[in-house]
């Protein structure tokens, strides 16, 4: 009532000086400020316990200082939980009064049962309307792990086992952890002090194993978590897990993985695939045919295959070149294909890893050494593919599986190299001891470069040599040669000059004819004297 007399309404005719330093308050605001006034100052405020362990009790001193101008009594209301307790206070006087500027102390005891965070309070009551609420807190530096919510194991072949490592680092405080299944959260009780943190025991789930199941991490320490994924079908697999911490924090995660079966595709073949010819030898299993046509011996030919891995799982492969599997009837009507173990066919690369969902080029190399028909089968085999055991349905074994079989056929033909003209003649009478030259042309009508070699002829009557004596001629081109003929004895000469073309079974020949005479010295002198006399 005394205060209400001071809070009278102002005269509306009186306008206060705007420069006035007097701050006015509304009636409700004045009452609120008075209610929030405290007569004691707490130190510390709040009361904080940290770095605690289960099974121990911790104590802190709380100092309450009278900050008013009058001596006051106080009363403390106990904490609401059993984890905090208040012991008898120490007052500066025997009557419980705290003089202005004096302090009294109390002991706060904290007994945690777990390593979680705790919150409570005590309230200080004194004469008047003022009161002081002091928070009581239990805090530990929480562990912080970088484990993702989704642990993705990727793709794996059905029946195979895939292991993936995840590095978990703790950037927070010390913590102890345990993985459990998501459906066991409400029924699992853990005694953290009885666990073996050096064990590599894993948590078993459907199609997954995660290990270690139990581990402990200091600040900035890391651990490698291994997840083993073994799918049983072509589908997606999902398992929920919960990571428990000794500070009673639960984090939910889920592990996912996808089962696949091996699958490849032949995308393209350089020059395309060919259809079988009526009556030719065919393999019983190979459906595709690749032909090398118009080939020549001692020349290397290549064709490019493009194969794609259709699943996101890398797989080991191997090319196998083998003779074809044909029936006895087919062998009697074949078209002359040479079926040999020593094959002129090779594939590069012959083995390796086919990356996930990747396309890879392969070179089929045909390097024949003779004139013949060649036939082999190239098998693209995937290595270590899991196959279900028919006797034990839940078990698999590994074996190589053939995914692609291609018949490879090649035919070689002789080089078409001829000399033009095929006959050379020296007209008239030619003197012995004098070298005569004739020009001939060697024409290569083949589609590939061919090598040649001329053989010199040295007989009693003459000697013949070609220049150049050896070399090579590009496909569909020609080369000129000088044929040098030297007579040794009078008479008619009729010889054949052999030349060898690469891979030819027999030598070809250039036919040469000439007539040589001896030059007499006496006839030459008489002729000169007769000319002088005239």
Helix-strand blueprint:
Elements: H1 2-6, H2 27-36, E1 40-43, E2 47-50, E3 58-66, E4 74-77, E5 84-86, E6 103-110, E7 118-126, E8 131-139, E9 150-157, E10 162-169, E11 175-181, E12 203-205, E13 208-211, E14 214-217, E15 222-229, E16 236-245, E17 250-260, E18 264-269, E19 288-295, E20 301-309, E21 315-322, H3 328-332, E22 337-338, E23 345-348, E24 351-354, E25 359-366, E26 373-388, E27 396-412, E28 417-420, E29 423-425, E30 430-431, E31 435-444, E32 450-454, E33 457-458, E34 462-467, E35 470-473, E36 477-487, E37 491-501, E38 508-517, H4 521-533
Parallel strand pairs: 2-8, 9-17, 19-27, 22-26, 29-38, 30-38
Antiparallel strand pairs: 1-3, 3-6, 4-7, 5-6, 7-8, 10-15, 11-14, 11-16, 12-13, 13-15, 16-17, 18-20, 20-25, 21-24, 21-26, 23-25, 26-27, 28-31, 31-36, 32-35, 32-37, 33-34, 34-36, 37-38
């Amino acid at each position: 009532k005394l205060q209400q007399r001071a809070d009278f309404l102002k005269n509306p005719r009186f306008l206060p000086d705007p420069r006035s330093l007097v701050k006015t308050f509304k009636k409700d605001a004045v009452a609120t400020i008075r209610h929030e006034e405290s007569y004691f100052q707490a130190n510390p405020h709040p009361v904080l316990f940290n770095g605690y362990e289960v099974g121990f009790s911790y104590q802190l001193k709380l100092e309450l200082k009278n900050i008013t101008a009058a001596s006051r009594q106080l009363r403390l209301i106990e904490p609401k939980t059993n984890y905090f307790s208040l012991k008898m206070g120490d007052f500066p006087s025997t009557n419980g009064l705290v003089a202005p500027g004096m302090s009294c102390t109390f002991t706060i005891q904290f007994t945690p049962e777990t390593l979680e965070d705790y919150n409570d309070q005590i309230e200080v009551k004194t004469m008047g309307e003022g009161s002081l609420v002091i928070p009581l807190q239990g805090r530990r530096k929480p562990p912080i792990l970088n484990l993702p919510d989704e642990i993705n194991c990727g793709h794996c072949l059905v029946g195979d086992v895939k292991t993936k490592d995840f590095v978990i680092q703790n950037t927070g405080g010390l913590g102890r952890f345990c993985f459990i299944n998501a459906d066991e959260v409400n029924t699992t009780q853990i005694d953290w002090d009885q666990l073996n943190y050096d064990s590599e025991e894993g948590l078993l789930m459907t199609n997954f194993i995660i290990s270690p199941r139990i581990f402990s991490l200091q600040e900035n320490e890391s651990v490698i978590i291994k997840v083993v994924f073994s799918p049983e079908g072509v589908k997606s697999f999902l398992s929920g897990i919960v990571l428990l911490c000794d500070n009673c924090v639960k984090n939910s995660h889920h592990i996912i993985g996808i089962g696949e079966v091996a699958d490849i595709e032949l995308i393209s073949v350089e020059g395309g695939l060919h259809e079988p010819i009526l009556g030719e030898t065919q393999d019983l299993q190979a459906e595709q045919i690749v032909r090398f046509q118009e080939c020549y011996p001692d020349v290397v030919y290549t064709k490019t295959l493009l194969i794609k891995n259709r699943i996101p799982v890398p797989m080991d492969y191997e090319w196998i070149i083998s003779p074809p599997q044909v029936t006895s009837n087919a062998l009697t009507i074949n078209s002359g294909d040479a079926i040999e173990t020593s094959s002129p066919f090779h594939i590069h690369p012959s083995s390796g890893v086919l990356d996930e969902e990747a396309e890879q080029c392969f070179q089929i190399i045909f390097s024949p050494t003779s004139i013949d028909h060649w036939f082999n089968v190239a098998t693209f085999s995937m290595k270590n593919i899991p196959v279900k055991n028919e006797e034990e349905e839940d078990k698999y074994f590994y074996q190589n599986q053939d995914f692609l079989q291609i018949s490879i056929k090649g035919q070689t033909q002789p080089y078409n190299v001829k000399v033009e003209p095929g006959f050379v003649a020296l007209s008239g009478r030619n003197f012995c001891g004098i070298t005569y030259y004739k020009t001939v042309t060697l024409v290569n009508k083949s589609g590939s470069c061919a090598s040649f070699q001329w053989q010199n002829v040295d007989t009693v009557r003459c000697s013949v040599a070609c220049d150049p004596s050896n070399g090579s001629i590009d496909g569909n081109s020609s080369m000129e040669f000088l044929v040098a003929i030297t007579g040794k004895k009078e008479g008619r000469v009729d010889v054949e000059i052999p030349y060898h073309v690469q891979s030819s079974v027999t030598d070809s020949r250039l036919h040469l004819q000439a007539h040589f005479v001896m030059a007499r010295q006496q006839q030459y002198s008489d002729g000169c004297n007769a000319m002088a006399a005239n």
